[in-house]
Amino acid sequence: HKACGEHFGSFARHPFRPALDEHPELLPIAKEPDERVNVGGGWHTDMTFMPQPPFGTLLFAVELPPPGLGDTMWSDNEAAFAGLSPGLQATLRGLRALHTAEKVHGPEAVQQEKRSEFRARAAQQSLVRELGSHPVVRTHPETGRPSLFVNPSFTVRFDGWSEAESRALLSHLFAHMAQPEYVVRVHWQPGTLVLWDTRTTQHYALNDYHGHRREMRRLMIEGEAPY
User: Fold this and answer.
1) DSSP 86-134
2) Of 99, 134, 203, 214, catalytic
3) Please, are residues 104 and 205 in contact by the beta-carbon 8 Å criterion?
4) Is 63 in contact with 209 (CB distance < 8 Å)?
5) CA-to-CA separations, 132 to 53, 64, 127, 174, in angstroms, rounded
6) Residue 69 phi/psi, 5° resolution?
7) Is 46 annotated in the active site?
8) What is the DSSP letter of 181?
């Protein structure tokens, strides 16, 4: 897993979630049969609350529920931006959005998770309440193509707007990005490795396997500040 990731750059560390002791670059992502809340159970792009979010992620399937359960969906944010009207595209190009970890990693959010190390780690980090600003339309540094760079897990409002003023437009963008024509769905098998570009995608881990165990390992590659 790490040998594959080294081809793409240096490894990024998650500021809140605990890693494997023997491999601190790898995050175990597991849901036990008696748990109801999963990790990543909503549309998101990894760690956009950071000044330099990771540019790529490699996710490896270790243990899975029965076939057809525990799938993951990805959306193409470049295609979603291209599907907007020219007028809305022009409006969005002039906006920045504020991202925070509060909703996903704040003390209230992690109370839903039984594992005390998650609660303790998040509660001790003041970073969960900090706001990071990124352009709403991000330019891919290699292709030059534009893509939407907002997500419902971490994006809270537009820079200079209130949350109430931002809600309608953000909700429209979130729904637009999740339309079926922009989405692919991966049916995992043990040993499957998926690599994706976090600069142009968001993803959603389906939580439809209560009573079964699912364990994944996540490796993230350091990225640059969005522009």
Assistant:
1) HHHHHHHHT-EEEE-SHHHHSHHHHTTS--HHHHHHHHT-GGGG--EEE
2) 203
3) no
4) no
5) 10, 35, 10, 19
6) -110, 155
7) yes
8) G
- The span from the CA of 17 to the CA of 121, in Å, is 7
- Catalytic, out of 105, 134, 157, 218: 218
Q: Considering the candidates 17, 46, 157, 199, report the single residue annotated as catalytic.
A: 46
DSSP 152-174: TTTEEEETTS-HHHHHHHHHHHH
Q: What is the Cα–Cα distance from 81 to 97, expressed in whole angstroms? A: 16
Torsion sign over Cα 218, 58, 151, 215? negative
Q: Tell me, what DSSP letter sits at residue 16?
A: S
Please tell me the predicted confidence (pLDDT) of residue 105.
63
In this structure, which amino acid lies at residue 185? Answer: R
Q: Which of 17, 44, 105, 214 is catalytic?
A: 44
Q: How far apart are CA 53 and CA 12, in angstroms?
A: 9
> What whole-number distance in Å separates Cα of residue 5 and Cα of residue 68?
27
The torsion region of residue 22 among left (phi > 0), alpha (psi -120 to 50) and beta comes to: alpha
162 Rama sector, left if φ>0, alpha if ψ -120 to 50, beta otherwise? beta
DSSP state of 116: H
The pLDDT tens digits for 25-71 are 999 999 999 999 999 999 999 999 999 999 999 999 999 999 999 99
14 given a catalytic annotation:
no
Q: How confident is the model at residue 164 (pLDDT cuts 50, 70, 90)?
A: very high
In the annotation, is 44 catalytic?
A: yes
Do residues 216 and 65 lie in contact, with contact meaning Cβ atoms separated by under 8 Å? no
